[in-house]
Amino acid sequence: MFDTIAGLPVHILVIHAVVAFAPLAALLAIGYAVRPAWRRVLRWPVALLAVATGVGGFVAAESGEALERRLVGAGVGGETLDLIHEHAEAGDLARTVCLAFAAIALVAVLWLLRPGRGGVIGLLVAAILVIASVAVTAAVLIAGHKGSTAVWSQTISGTN
Q: Which first-to-last residue range defines the signal peptide (predicted)?
């Protein structure tokens, strides 16, 4: 299920969505957290992008594992395999952070927009949402960088 679509690795197709949605969701979530006046407008975009980030992170990690198995089966080894393993570890962390961000963002959207909710609890939830937003952006950037390194470092440096 997470291996290929029309002969292309699912991972390659899905990672672009995660790389686009996670930072966008994080940016909107930070705006939602720090600007109460924007909450009504940002409620549904934050919720939908958070869900897309969580689902995308999960599918990217699962499809990455399928691609890793395919590459190992095809005889990829050496330094490239080491880079793939580093990327896979970062991808596992990114999956967890994407899912946590989605949950935190949904709780924040449901909690902070309710009448009568605010005060210290509201500030705490807003702070947690900002931290989760920074974390998801960092996790996706690190995993993406390690993946790009695994794919392109030897091609760009001219070694095989």
A: none
